[in-house]
Fold this sequence. Notes:
The chain is mostly helical and about 425 residues long. Helix content is about 70%, strand content about 5%. It contains 15 helices and two strands. The chain has a two-stranded antiparallel ribbon.
Amino acid sequence: MATCSGLNESVFEDARKYYSELLGDYVDAYNSIHVYIYQVLCIIGVLANISIILVLLRPVMRKNPFNLFLIAIAICDMTLMATYFIFKQVEMCHPWYFSYSWIVFTHAYAVLSVFVHGLSLWLTVVMAVLRYLVLKGSSAPRSGLPKMNSFQAATVAIIIAIVLTLIGSAPNMLRYEIRDGGSRTVPVICTISSSKYAQYYTSSSRVNAYTLLQPRFWSCSWERFSFWTAGLMLKLIPCVTLSVFMTLLVQMLMEAKERRNRLCRGSMPAGSVKSQAERTTSMLTVIVAVFLITELPQGILVFASGVQPTVHIAMKMLGNLIDLLSLVNSSVNFILCAMMSHLFRRQFLLTFGVCCPQTSENVSGAQMQPPRKRKFLINTKFCLKHEKSSSAIQLSNDNELCAQESLLINKQNGVKKNGASGELSQ
C-alpha cells in the first residue's frame, strides 16, 4: 500500500493509530458477536431467497415480467450469502486454509461477491426505472414511449444491469492472481497452544503457501482506478439513481391517489383508500431507506479509498460491519415482498402447503366491501382494481388506468343522460 500510494510507512502508521483510537473499541465490541449474527442472517437469508424464487416461479406469478427482476435479485443475494457463509467457515490455521482448492475458492469469492452484489443493486435500479416508465406510459398513452410492461423490456433491462455491473467490477476481476510460494513451515501462530487448530500441526509441519497477490502489471494507478470505479459504478451512482426514481414513483402514486379520490368519491370508505396510499408510500420509503443505509456508506468509503489511501485502513477495521450491511440488504427482500404484495403472501402459503380458505380476503388481502347502493357498483369495482395497481412495485399485473378511467367516465355520463331523459319523459 505504501508503494502504491506514494506515501511513506510513517504516514500509514500514524493513520493506524488514529483509526485505532477512533474506532477500535466499537469494532472490537461488534466483532465479538459478528460470528453469531452473520450465521443467522446467512442461513435465514438463503432460505428466504430460495422461497422467493419458488413462489415467483409459480404459474400465476410468471405472468408478470417484473418478477424476472425479483428472481434475478434473489439469485444474486442467495449466492452472495452462501459464498460468504462458506468463506467465513475456514479461518486462518484451518487445515483447508493452506490447500490449493481453498485458494481457488477464495479467488472466486473475491471476484464473484463484488459482481453479484453490484448486480443485485443495479437490478433494483433498472427495475425502478422500468416501473417508472410503465406508469408514465399508462398515464400518458400518447407519450411515444415503447411498451415497457413486457418480458422483452425486462430482459433488455436485465442485460443492461449486467453490462453496467461488469464495467464496475472489471478492475476487481483483474486485481488478484494465485501464486505458489512453495513449501514452507506452518506459521507459528498455528502451532501455539492457544490456537484451536494446534492439534493438526507440529513445529516441523510444512504446507504449500498458496497466496492471492496482485498481478505484476498492477500499479498505483490501477489500484486507485479500481476503487474509484467500484465506488462510483457499484455504489454511489446506483444509490443516487434509485433515490431519484423512487421519488418520482412516490410523486406519481400521490397523483394517482388524488385522481382515484376524485373518481371514487363516495363509493368506498375514505379510511381504506387513505390507508392504502399511506401504506404504499411508507413501503417505498422503507425501500429507499434500507438501500441508502446499507449501500451509501460503503460507496463513500470505497470512493474515499481511491482519493485517500489511508482510508483503506478504516475499511479493513470496519470489514465485519460493512459485511453486515450487505447481508441485511440481501436478507430483507423477502420481508418487503411479503409486506407489500397480497398475491405473494397467498402464493407463498399455497407453495409451502399451508391450508387456508379460498376467500376473497386471502387472495386480495382485504375483505370485499359490498356496495351500499346499486348505482355505486361500477365505481366500487373500479376503485378496488385501481387501489391494487397503485403500488409502484406491486407484484400483480398492471392495469391500463387511463382506459378504465375513460370507460368509467363515459359510463357515468351515460347513466346521467339516461336518467335525465327518463325524468323528462315522465
